Amino acid sequence: MSLTTPGRSRALTATVLALVLGVSTACGDDGPGTSAGGSIKIGLLASLSGTYQAVGTEIRDGFQLYLDTHDGKLGGRQVDLVVADEGNGAQTAVPAATKLLKQDRVSALTGIVGGGSVAGVTPLLNETKVPLVGSNGRPELKDVSRVWHTSYLSDEPGAAIAQHVRDNVKGSVYAIGPDYQGGWDELRGFTDAFGKIGGKLANADGKTTFTPFPATTNFTPYFARIKASGAAAVYTFYAGSAAVDFVKQYAQSEIKDIPLYAAGFLTEGGVLNAQGEAARDIYSVLNYSPDLDNAENRAFVAAWKAKHDGSPTTYALASYDAAAVLDRAIGAAGSDPTPEAINAAIGQLGQIASPRGTWQFSTATHSPVQKWYLRQVRQDGRALSNTVVGDLATVGR
Amino acid sequence: MIAVAAGTNRIDPYLIPALDGVAYGLLVFVAASGLVFCFGVANILNLAHGTLYAIGGYTAAALLDGGWASLALALTVGVLAAAAAGVLLAGLLTPIATGNHLTQALLTFGVALAGGSLLVAGFGPDDPQVRVPAALDGSVAVAGHRYAAYRLVFIVVAALIAAALYLVVRRTRAGMLVRAAVGDPEMVACLGVSPARIRAGVLAAAGALAGAAGVLGAPIIGPGTDTADTVLLLSLVVVVLGGLGSMAGTLLAALAIGEIQTLGVALLPSAAPFLLFAAMAAVLAVRARGLAARWRTT
User: Fold this and answer.
1) Which of A220, A227, A255 to mutate to test the interface with B (most CBs of B within 10 A)?
2) Given an 8 Å threshold on Cβ–Cβ distance, is B222 in contact with A245?
3) Which residues partner with A108 through β-bridges?
4) Domains of chain A: which residue ranges?
5) DSSP B136
6) What is the CATH number of domain A39-152+298-366?
7) Chain A residues within 8 Å of chain B (Cβ atoms)
8) Tens digits of per-residue pLDDT, A186-228?
9) Which residues of chain A lie closer than 8 angstroms to B226, CB-CB?
């Protein structure tokens, strides 16, 4: 291991020097994420490229909107927001989260679009003892001690709308959805709750029809089966381009007059513009709608519209609420808001006022106990928009 | 209602999927015929064929605005752009001996990857939406059922393209030259026609066909990041199922794919993910020499 050449020794000296300097600056911080100036470092991880770019952008903008309307402060501390790109899934999300947690040493993590990304990042949270206040994807997790979500569990939309469909549809209901984990959860939520209250599925074998995902772009064969089943209504969940294909083809199919009920993502955000007239009259269930009538929502929508075209989505709302949760938790964590203290404070928040209405964290799942709304795609000025037509169940466990 | 649908007529529920299978099958035919044409006639294995279709699809998404003029414009631009891409491919393939399929496959596959990235860079990673002419953006009654108007018209247009293609290959001087170039390239060269020009012509024609399919088929197999792969795969399945022996074989194979993907899915939804490839495996097992014959033997 002797250093024989001057060149090598000089290089080594430089490296050692750089390391020492690096370590000494790192030690200059008061602790992870906080510094002497009363500021705090928050990491935001969202898909800013790839398939979920639209959702990721909404999540970033929702969080930023809360900061902009609160002097850039959370819990009275100036926020240093570090944004990283989640990409398409865990493969890109885990390295990005590792950088935020270990190099930037953020005090809390937020965002994360994909359920798979959350599952991949969770072990890192326990290793670094930093809490995640997620604003979208929420997979089945065994250990939620440091995981909180302001969004929902995938089976909740279906569970929330089941009673309404049972009361308003005279006949059996055809259940159809995409063949992947998200689709299974969304449809199971509906069919389980619907079956428990005596609802009957029109599907041939009494089981949900799952279409290959993402390979299915032509739904005509499935519509023929729905027609033949004699269903009085259809319940579905699709998102992204599959939602556009499904809705456009449905409107031109022979079952276009059968009422369509869906988890809200079928007509949420950008896909509604792409669907256009084809989406008119579709009923959907979601935990938020931009036309909800409460003071928080009016302020939120006005602030959003001042900066963006169009109305905020549930994705932006969830991220805005994640910032609100962190705001209160950091404020409650005392003079030294360590990641552990913030995590403990989140558990003590109780009721949270939000544009979606008041909600609180479930102690078991760390996701919201919240009210769900029935919406219908209707004309709103020049554009079609999801309009609230009623309250549905309050769901959470 | 249920009793009527199920009791009086067992075929009735499957009419629309069967009709849709024809639309889908004809689209696959127009899209795949370029690949079969290149492979069977010019002996060029073009794995960038799906990308040529995607060029047409993205052109349609970018230019269509719900009017007829935009459809004509998109068709012109899409066909020209895809044909130009075909000529570019022919230029790249010039140094490679005809019939050296492995080298051709590697080169065109590389072009497909690069082309796919360029399309994503140019048009974004999302699947763009395609607006068909407003007059066709509805549904019409077919034997007591509703069916998308655009697809019904597409069936007619695609059938016309297929007929025109047949006439060009069988009855025109260009078609004869191409068939002759495969039968005896030296003799054709002696007649003063450069084989390189014929190769460029064949690839341009294949590109034009794929581009036309891409524009007209965009509302059915829409442009997106995986469109090129889907179309290439379907085209290769057409080659396997229909062989290179005849246009009729190609047409039958394409229609079979269409029906498997629609009628087959309606009949056996649980088998939907693998129905197509099960059919392909069955054909391969029964008729392994499907690849041996060439289009020229018609």
Assistant:
1) A220
2) yes
3) A42
4) 39-152+298-366, 156-286+372-395
5) G
6) 3.40.50.2300
7) 49-51, 53-54, 179, 209, 211-212, 214-218, 220-225, 227-230, 240-241, 244-245, 249, 251-254, 256, 274
8) 999 999 999 999 999 999 888 999 998 877 888 999 999 899 8
9) 214
Q: What tokens were used for B95? A: 């140094």
Domain that holds residue B239: 15-297
Instruction: Give the model confidence (pLDDT) of B24-81 as tens digits.
Output: 999 999 999 999 888 877 788 899 999 999 999 999 999 998 889 999 999 999 999 9
ipTM higher than the 0.95 cut: no
Most A-contacting residue of B1, B2, B4, B26 (CB-CB within 10 A), to test interface = B2
Residue B1 lies in a domain: no
Q: Is A224 within 8 Å of B16 when comparing Cβ atoms?
A: yes
Which of A53, A217, A221 shows the shortest C-beta gap to B221?
Answer: A217
What does the alpha-carbon distance between residue B96 and residue A226 come to, in Å, rounded to a whole number? 53
B9 domain residue, yes or no:
no
Q: Which residues of A touch B125 (CB under 8 A)?
A: 49-51, 53
Count of structural domains within chain B: 1
List of chain B residues whose C-beta atoms are within 8 Å of the C-beta of residue A49: 125
Q: Facing residues of A361 across strands?
A: A368
Q: Encode pLDDT of A224-262 as tens digits.
A: 989 989 999 999 999 888 898 899 999 999 899 999 999
Average confidence score pLDDT of chain B: 85
Contacts of residue A215 in chain B, CB cutoff 8 Å? 273
pTM (two decimals): 0.81
Please give the C-alpha separations between residue A82 and each of A212, A339, B288, in angstroms, as whole numbers.
Answer: 38, 16, 59
CATH number of A156-286+372-395: 3.40.50.2300
Same topology, domains A39-152+298-366 and A156-286+372-395? Answer is yes
Mutate to test the interface with B, among A217, A229, A247, A272 (most CBs of B within 10 A): A217
User: What pLDDT band is residue A37 in, cutting at 50, 70 and 90?
Assistant: low
* Closest in A49, A209, A254 to B16, CB measured: A254
Choose among B125, B262, B265: nearest Cβ to A50.
B125
